[in-house]
Design brief:
Helix content: under 10%
Number of strands: 9
Distance between the termini: 41 Å
Shape: elongated
Order of helices and strands: EEEEEEEEE
């Protein structure tokens, strides 16, 4: 499996929080613009996972998670995808949406590795350019990239 050119995922996120009631809309709506290009045929889909937490984002920060959500697996067309992915979610039963201060979103790639369906994820949540590694298979396999190519698989920032 090899990449013919640069794989890009560009993230920008907007968030909206609201009041929780049984019939209310979701507490958070994040719109993530994504651009993926030149993926090998073994990778046939992707998903975006997002979360909100109480602590300001900084390297090494771990905070109380307020809530999170993940998109369904979205198909690739011709080895790529360009468009917005909307992630909506409510606070967890113990989370307070009013206390959410930060968001994080990350890319997961889906495909077939040695005959087994797998998912690749970033190996370091504080480094959005860390290698992407398979979640199944022994040993785990990194997504290979062409020389000079970059995978940006995550983004973090303030909600307000």
């Amino acid at each position: 499996m090899s990449f013919r050119s640069i794989l890009l995922s560009a993230f920008a996120v907007a968030a909206v929080s609201g009041v929780v009631t049984p019939a209310a809309a979701e507490d958070f709506t994040l719109i993530v613009p994504v651009r993926l290009a030149a993926l090998p045929p073994e990778i046939d889909g992707f998903r975006i996972q997002c979360g909100a937490s109480e602590l300001p984002v900084r390297v090494g920060a771990t905070g109380t998670t307020v809530g999170g959500g993940i998109s369904p697996v979205l198909p690739l067309s011709g080895g790529g995808f360009t468009g917005d992915v909307t992630i909506r979610f409510n606070a967890s039963p113990t989370g307070d949406p009013a206390r959410a201060a930060t968001y994080s979103c990350w890319l997961r790639l889906n495909g077939i590795l040695a005959g087994t369906r797998t998912e690749w994820y970033g190996t370091d949540g504080n480094n959005p350019a860390s290698p992407m590694r398979s979640m199944t298979g022994e040993p785990p396999v990194d997504v290979p990239v062409a020389a000079g190519a970059t995978i940006v698989h995550g983004v973090k920032g303030p909600l307000r």
